[in-house]
Design goal:
6 helices; hydrolase; TesB_ACOT8-like_N; lipid metabolism; 20% helix; Acyl-CoA thioesterase 2; HotDog_dom_sf; globular
Length: 296
């Protein structure tokens, strides 16, 4: 299968330009920033957006030669789309090699997310990693943008109109139906739908933005659920990410995912991210609330 798209270049570029605009924060003080939000059908701020904005705010107070190597965030409250978000950065530590920042994303005087991120100078050391599993090329896998864009459904049309990343599920997506095999394993090719300007801070923030929409899918896959399951309620609770090597968000990345456990109305998703050449560039873990009325 050759890589094709049913959308024109203009249609493909607009969602990515909208994302770039939202990630351009206004600096209102030495350690204070303000940002806006992209539209969402559920009326709440997308968690990946506010997490990416928080990382960019933290990075703006950190020496440029120290890219982020890890972050840990907690989603505390739903964010309102029509309210600006203030990002208050606390400079926790600046050492000889590492800098640590804590960020509170605030609306109406209350935090909607708190995040701690660590930054490090590029240094030599042990260099080893797991190898990428066999996977078909991204060009041979159907794009979710094309699949959903062909449907005459308001939710599908809204999603494709806002899709800043091309997402391609190797073993089939969960957008329209569950995975009846009940396997938590999932591989997804993902790439920004436009060139990412800026250094590693922006590329890593882009990966934060993109992955939040995928991280809990292995939990759904194992439970034979899909995004269209009636009564399904999902909310991200926390998110952790580690970057091992430089990442290019505008080149194909393979997300190799699984779900170690689900219980108590919560599910845990895990992922390793590989560049197309097989280099392991990042690892992720996320726990979320997952509730279905007819599942005890």
């Amino acid at each position: 299968m050759t890589e094709t798209s049913s959308q024109t270049p203009t249609e493909a570029a607009e969602p990515f330009r909208n994302l770039q605009a939202v990630l351009e924060l206004d600096r209102t003080g030495d350690d204070t920033f303000v940002g806006s939000s992209l539209p969402q059908l559920n009326g709440r701020v997308y968690g990946g957006q506010v997490l990416a904005q928080s990382l960019l705010a933290a990075g703006a107070t950190t020496p440029e030669d120290r890219p982020p190597h890890s972050l840990h965030g907690y989603f505390l409250r739903p964010g309102a789309l029509d309210e600006p978000i203030t990002f208050d950065v606390e400079r926790m530590r600046d050492g000889r090699s590492f800098s640590v920042r804590q960020v509170h994303a605030v609306q109406n005087g209350k935090p909607i997310l708190t995040m701690t991120a660590s930054f490090q100078e590029v240094q030599p050391g042990i260099d080893e990693a797991q190898t990428m599993p066999d996977a078909p090329s991204p060009e041979s896998v159907e794009s979710a943008v094309d699949k959903l864009g062909s449907l005459d459904h308001p939710v599908a049309k809204f999603w494709t109109s806002q899709a800043a990343f091309d997402i391609r599920h190797v073993n089939g997506s969960l957008y329209l139906s569950p995975d009846r095999e009940g396997d938590d394993r999932q591989m997804v090719w993902l790439r920004a739908r436009g060139p990412v300007a800026g250094g590693q801070l922006m590329h890593r923030a882009m990966t934060v933005y993109a992955c939040d929409q995928l991280m809990l899918e292995p939990v759904l896959r194992r439970a034979n659920l899909g995004w269209a399951t009636r009564g399904l309620s999902i909310a991200s609770l926390d998110h952790a990410m580690w970057w091992h090597r430089d990442v290019q968000a505008d080149e194909w990345l393979l997300y190799v995912q699984s779900s170690p456990s689900a219980s108590g109305g919560r599910g845990l998703g895990a992922a390793r991210i590989f560049a197309q050449d097989g280099t392991l560039v990042a690892s992720i873990a996320q726990e979320g609330m997952i509730r279905v009325p007819d599942v005890s």
